[in-house]
Design a protein that fits this description.
The chain is mainly β. The chain has 3 helices and 27 strands.
Length: 366
């Protein structure tokens, strides 16, 4: 009996040391009243108007920061600009039917390990271009039975990570790791199956981001955020959304009702994420130091209270913790018409901007 008690005591002690409690970030039961402000997340905000010429005219753009450049793209073209002053540098890639053509500019990513841009091609191929605008070849990627990966991101210098959305309810793969030649190195299975005759194509089905050179992944309808490693998916923290959302098994019939996380921002101080709850866009900021969460309205984006300027939505989170937003020139002109030209020297671009100009990229930095 004494030996049994001793064994149980040792087992309990060992378990207490080996078990790591996973952080859980809750949502509020109420709708926040305070608007989200940049000073809650960032120390510095700067504005970079993109040069406007016939060669680089863009509309409704997406952006990414790459080294000292801004990569900006829309449906028809992809352009490189200086991140310092917005000067146009060059166009990259083209859409067409020739061997070097890109199928779409929207699904692109930058690989810091080889310095190349990867664009969606056809038949499970990624088309590669250098920042110098030169074609650099192609890379095959693994496919599932229904589609190509929804997200691809470099895990390290030898490995890419691909996420396969569960569009039919019966997808067997969730995460696939593969090498530069498209050879599969490891598969992490999908364990959430749904019997349905529906097929859902949802561009917000999952997201990936990097923090401290580690790659993190979250799937829609699943609260856990995982760190992707070569040997495992490691649960890092939980966004406790399910109590206010719909069960995974009902995703094909009520997916529009789900609370969806659009983006996650993580740095040494905060974990922040935006979501829509009860028809209202909201922002949660969890402080790692105080272990407390704050909640804000995020209807029109995050207000620039540092420069006393208009709100902007965070559209891109960069690996170095910088966040980017985009303000269309016409929206800025409308704001100036109602509020006057700002006197802040950081906003001098508002004195000469016109509604037909290229957008302005907002850098939010720590």
């Amino acid at each position: 009996m004494r030996l049994i008690k001793l064994f149980l005591f040792i087992l309990v002690i060992f378990s207490s040391f080996s078990y790591e409690k996973i952080l859980k970030i809750d949502l509020p039961s109420h709708v926040p009243k305070e608007a989200a402000r940049m000073s809650k997340l960032f120390c510095k905000v700067r504005y970079v108007p993109l040069e406007t010429t016939e060669e680089c005219l863009l509309s409704y753009i997406h952006v990414q920061k790459i080294q000292d450049y801004i990569l900006a793209w829309d449906y028809n073209s992809c352009c490189l600009f200086s991140a310092r002053d917005g000067r146009f540098v060059r166009r990259i890639g083209h859409i067409g039917d020739d061997p070097e053509a890109v199928y779409s500019f929207y699904e692109n990513f930058y690989n810091p390990y080889d310095g190349l841009l990867y664009f969606l091609g056809v038949n499970g191929v990624q088309v590669k271009y250098g920042l110098d605008g030169k074609y650099a070849g192609k890379m095959k990627v693994p496919l599932c039975t229904s589609a190509s990966p929804q997200i691809i991101a470099p895990l390290d210098s030898m490995t890419f990570c691909a996420f396969f959305a569960n569009r039919s309810g019966q997808e067997t793969k969730k995460i696939v790791l593969f090498d530069n030649n498209g050879n599969v190195k490891k598969e992490y299975p999908n364990n959430n199956f749904v019997k349905t005759n529906k097929y859902i194509l949802d561009t917000a089905d999952g997201l990936m981001y990097k923090y401290n050179d580690n790659l993190y992944f979250k799937e829609k309808f699943v609260d856990t955020v995982y760190q992707v490693n070569n040997n495992q998916l490691e649960a890092k923290y939980i966004l406790n959304i399910t109590p206010y959302s719909i069960p995974y098994q009902e995703r094909f019939y009520r997916h529009k009702e789900a609370i969806n996380t659009i983006s996650i921002i993580e740095n040494d101080v905060n974990i922040a994420f935006d979501y829509n709850k009860s028809g209202v866009n909201q922002l949660c900021i969890y402080n790692k130091h105080t272990d407390k969460s704050s909640y804000y309205l995020y209807e029109n984006g995050i207000i620039d209270d540092i420069n006393k300027f208009m709100p902007v939505r965070i559209s891109t989170t960069c690996d170095d913790g910088t966040c980017l937003g985009v303000l269309n020139a016409s929206d800025i002109c409308d704001y100036i018409e109602k509020n006057g030209i700002p006197t802040n020297p950081n906003l001098n671009f508002t004195k000469t901007i016109s509604s037909d100009d290229n957008p302005v990229v907002v850098f939010m930095e720590n």
